[in-house]
Design goal:
rod-shaped; alpha+beta
Length: 455
């Protein structure tokens, strides 16, 4: 069932329930009023009958005629009976008799006013005192006119209920259609967006209001498209750049091999060709290792990771640097906690070591022969690692793109590299809940700040 139909039937059901309750209450109130009115009329008939029968000898002729005229306006199938204290019938109007239960008659004699039913008739019994004695007066009749009025009222209310439901259904369909029209328009716009035109966006004010649920849904969907477009662009750039980076050493290796095999050469020429081939394959191997590390950094961390001391991890990263470059690293420790456990964090030791090594190698590579300062400092809840070099720096326009895989700034192209180390380091650090910030000034060096949360 569509949302429009569900909303329509829900609307009809709620209103029908309320309307049924209101109409039923009105009918029951009218039925109760009709019943009480008929009983009051029965009582009045009983009082008038007793007054006329018992007070006839004491009334003036004109007064008696007035009461008699009122008494003659009888109810439908009316029966009036008058009992003395012995329970004997002293007067009966109409030939039929009312069957008064003995217990009801006994309560009437005690002075109670009793209402009871005798077949289709409703009856009332009252206790009447007169100078001639004490009597019980019983009046009964059929409330045919009242029942007819109630049936007529029930027919009217049922007709109103059915017509109201039809009107409510039509109104519900109309309002549900109008309410869902922006959703249908949003669905049509979303359906026209494919992987080839992720630049398209849906309108965020289809309902004419900027802060309602549909506007927020459209805004959320547009933000999802922004992320998807960015991811797709990143993947396309990754594939394009990876293809280029892989093609270069492969083409060079194939060219070296073809050149060496083109004719007979001296052993020294073969050794030179093999050395050049080894260099190209080494670069290719390094690139493939970076790609594997980058893919591994995209996967979630396992639930049970090891506890790592950041100071020990940084020392291991420095020890993994090429011995020829290691003297250029100047490691400094600032404020450190009294308890070594406060420098511990939970994570993947190999990945974090790879991230720090990449950052250190980048700083050394782009600042040769200048020294690189490495500072370790503790702050409540985290550890700061600051790596500062005095190298070529990065232009301000290139800073937003340095974390894109395979991107290389214009002044960094003469230096051997693939543009994977910095994006890989950032992914690893962010995966561990940390943060990597980079500031640089062209020609004056670069500062990398790594903030890692401790366990």
């Amino acid at each position: 069932m569509t949302i429009r139909n569900r909303l329509t039937w829900l609307f009809v059901g709620v209103v029908a329930f309320i309307l049924l309750g209101v109409l039923t209450t009105a009918f029951l109130l009218q039925a109760d009023y009709s019943r009480r009115d008929f009983r009051q009329r029965l009582r009045e008939r009983a009082v008038v009958a007793a007054y006329i029968y018992l007070e006839k000898d004491e009334l003036r002729s004109s007064a008696f005629q007035a009461f008699q005229k009122q008494f003659q306006r009888t109810l439908t199938e009316e029966i009036i009976q008058l009992y003395d204290t012995k329970g004997e019938v002293r007067f009966v109007r109409e030939d039929a008799r009312l069957e008064v239960p003995p217990d009801v008659l006994a309560r009437i004699k005690e002075g109670h006013e009793e209402y009871f039913e005798d077949g289709t008739r409703e009856a009332v019994g009252i206790f009447y005192r007169d100078n001639q004695g004490q009597y019980v007066v019983v009046a009964g009749a059929e409330n045919i006119r009242g029942e007819a009025r109630l049936q007529y009222l029930a027919t009217i209310l049922a007709t109103i209920f059915v017509l109201s439901l039809l009107l409510i259904y039509a109104a519900g369909r109309l309002f549900a259609g109008r309410a869902l029209a922006p959703i249908a328009a949003l669905n049509d716009q979303m359906d026209r967006i494919s992987a080839h035109d992720l630049h398209r966006r849906v309108a965020e004010n289809l309902s004419g209001r900027e802060q309602d649920e549909l506007s927020r849904l459209a805004h959320t969907f547009n933000r999802l498209l922004d992320r998807l477009e960015s991811s797709f662009d990143g993947q396309r750039a990754f594939v394009r750049n990876a293809s280029h980076e892989l093609r270069t050493p492969l083409a060079a290796s194939i060219g070296e091999a073809q050149l060496a095999l083109a004719r007979e050469r001296e052993p020294a020429a073969y050794r030179a060709a093999l050395h050049a081939l080894l260099t190209d394959l080494t670069q290719l191997n390094a690139l493939l290792n970076h790609l594997l590390d980058l893919a591994q950094a995209e996967t979630p961390l396992p639930e049970h990771d090891t506890r790592i001391r950041v100071d020990e991890l940084l020392a291991e990263a420095c020890a993994a640097i090429d011995p020829a470059q290691r003297p250029r690293l100047h490691l400094h420790t600032g404020r450190l906690p009294a308890e070594p456990e406060q420098l511990e964090l939970t994570g993947n030791r190999a990945l974090l070591s790879r991230a720090l090594i990449n950052l250190l190698e980048n700083a050394l590579k782009y600042s040769e022969p200048q020294p690189v300062a490495v500072d370790l400092e503790y702050e409540p809840g985290g550890v700061l690692v600051r790596i500062r070099d005095q190298g070529i720096g990065i232009a301000e326009g290139d800073l937003p793109q340095v974390f894109q895989p395979f991107f290389r700034a214009g002044n960094a192209r003469p230096v051997t590299g693939h543009g994977v180390g910095l994006p890989l380091a950032r992914k690893i650090i962010e995966q561990h809940g940390g943060e990597l910030k980079l500031t640089s000034q062209l020609g004056h060096g670069t500062t990398v700040l790594v903030r890692l949360p401790t366990a």
